[in-house]
Amino acid sequence: MSMTISIDDELKRDFSEVCREIGLTPSTAFGIFARTVVRERAIPFELSAVTPEERAARSYDLRVADGVRRGLEQFGGGDFVSRSESRSLRSARDV
Q1: How far is the C-alpha of 1 from the C-alpha of 15, rounded, in Å?
Q2: Does residue 75 contact residue 81 with C-beta atoms inside 8 Å?
Q3: How far apart are CA 69 and CA 66, in angstroms?
Q4: Dist. CA 50–CA 55, nearest whole Å
Q5: pLDDT (tens digit per residue) in 56-77
Q6: 3-class secondary-structure state, position 76
Q7: Cα 69 to chain center, whole Å?
Q8: CB atoms near residue 76 (< 10 Å)
Q9: Among residues 13, 15, 22, 27, which is most buried (max CB within 10 A)?
Q10: Predicted model pTM
C-alpha cells in the first residue's frame, strides 16, 4: 500500500539527509514511526504546547520540591540546621 504525505521542501531535504546518515531511507523511517504508533497506541515522543522557558521553570520547581522532600526526610521534618550547616550541606552535595 502507498501513502503520500506533504512536507516542506527544506524539511524533506533535511529529513532525508538525517535518515541517510543513520542508514535509513525516509520511507523506512516513516514505517518505523508508524509501527511504533500502532504498537504503543501513542505518538512515540512528547507533544506539548509548553514553551522551553515554562519547561525549565517546571523542572526547577520539581528540583526544589525534591530538595525540600529530601531535606525533610534527612532531618526528620522538625529539626533545624544553622545557615552555615546548610551551606556546608549544599557545598558537599555540589561536589
Answers
A1: 22
A2: yes
A3: 5
A4: 6
A5: 888 888 888 888 888 777 776 5
A6: coil
A7: 22
A8: 7
A9: 15
A10: 0.51
